[in-house]
Specification:
Low-confidence stretches: 1-11, 327-347
Number of helices: 14
Number of strands: 12
Shape: globular
Order of helices and strands: EHEHEHEHEHHEHEHEHEHEHEHEHH
Structural class: alpha/beta
Mean pLDDT: 89
Distance between the termini: 33 Å
Strand order of the largest sheet: 8-7-6-9-10-11-12
Length: about 350
């Protein structure tokens, strides 16, 4: 892939990279060695569209929405890199049509997401957030805060890919019984983690004491846990979501918690982030049976470093003329990402 030429002196210009969100210092150092790097945090969508035309690459996390309009405005744009697992904040169809490569980091935050799932599982089981708030307000309410043990309880996993398997192994160490529903599951890996693969979602839901989802957000998984699914679960069951907002029907979950047909929820991701005041997500966050965190699944020092270095390395390679190596979509075939994601069920 030829490098752009500087029109004033004929010398090869360094490709320009725009970074509107945080990237680790080590990732920045990699880029700065060969590229012209501009960190411009806090740009509005309109401001981003106004400046993107002069850049060869765009590196984002989850806050920046890479829309069709933004991609069309990127007249020189060759690659969009998402420092994280999913690329649901990037319009893949528009990128494909425009020949813009989209890459991600499918490995970097697997452990962080799995650990956060276990943290929410334990917090919902033992009323950690309510107990902490109560104690800090000067109360001593032991009798009101009796929890449940997870040993011997059934953890039901939807999506037994890399994150789901990591969660399973950790939960197995806590003595939990493990079941999963995943049409693409690797049965040998499931067996090695002592996970029983069930044949139907209904079977999974009926057995679950704790339910966790680890799939990509696509048309077939959006709203996959709604009133109908929640009604099939035990009224002592607790649900977890550290994957993507939109997997759970938030209105249905709120209703189930209010009615007492679901015992609790640990939620890290929401349909809109940050949630608007008075919408269902905000009501879930405020609910006493919900432990909520602001999309912290990948927010560890280690995960941030891993994904930043990964995508920065890929950007350098692509701008030097090499092909992408991640599971992200490219202008060759945008469906590559979704097929890979379905096969690996990364959250």
């Amino acid at each position: 892939m030829p490098q752009p030429q500087n029109g004033t002196n004929g010398h090869t210009a360094r490709p320009k990279v725009l970074i509107p969100e945080k990237v680790s210092p080590d990732g920045l150092k990699l880029l700065q060695a060969s590229l012209d790097v501009h960190e411009r945090k806090g740009l509005s969508p309109q401001e981003l569209e106004e400046v993107i035309g002069e850049y060869d690459a765009l590196i984002v996390r989850s806050e920046t929405k890479v829309t069709a309009a933004l991609l069309a405005a990127g007249k020189q744009l060759r690659v969009v890199a998402r420092a994280g697992v999913g690329v649901d904040n990037v319009d893949l169809d528009a990128a494909t049509k425009l020949g813009i490569i989209v890459v991600n980091s499918p490995q970097g935050n697997i452990n962080a997401a799995a650990e956060h799932t276990i943290a929410l599982l334990m917090a919902t089981a033992r009323n950690i957030d309510i107990a902490s708030a109560s104690l800090k307000s000067g109360k001593w309410e032991r009798s009101k805060l009796v929890g449940v043990e997870v040993k011997g309880k059934t953890l039901a996993i939807i999506g037994l890919g890399k994150v789901g398997l990591t969660v399973a192994r950790a939960a197995g160490g806590l003595g939990m019984d493990l079941i999963a529903f995943d049409p693409y599951a690797n049965t040998s890996l499931a067996a090695s983690a002592n996970v029983e693969i069930v044949s139907t979602m209904d079977e999974l839901l009926k057995q679950a004491d704790f339910l966790t989802i680890h799939t990509p957000l696509i048309a077939s998984t959006k709203g996959m846990i709604s009133a109908n699914e929640l009604a099939k679960m035990k009224n002592t069951a607790r649900v977890l979501n550290v994957a993507r907002g939109g997997m759970f029907d938030e209105a249905a979950l709120l209703e189930a918690l209010e009615a007492g047909t679901i015992a609790g929820a640990g939620i890290d991701v929401f349909t809109s982030e940050p949630p608007a005041p008075d919408d269902n997500a905000s009501k879930l966050i405020a609910h006493p049976k919900v432990v909520a965190t602001p999309h912290l699944g990948a927010s560890t020092v280690e995960a941030q470093e891993n994904v930043s270095i990964d995508v920065c390395t890929q950007v350098i390679s692509i701008l030097s003329g090499q092909m992408p190596r991640s599971a992200g979509a490219s202008h060759i075939c945008s469906s590559v990402y979704w097929l890979h994601a379905a096969d690996n069920n990364l959250s």
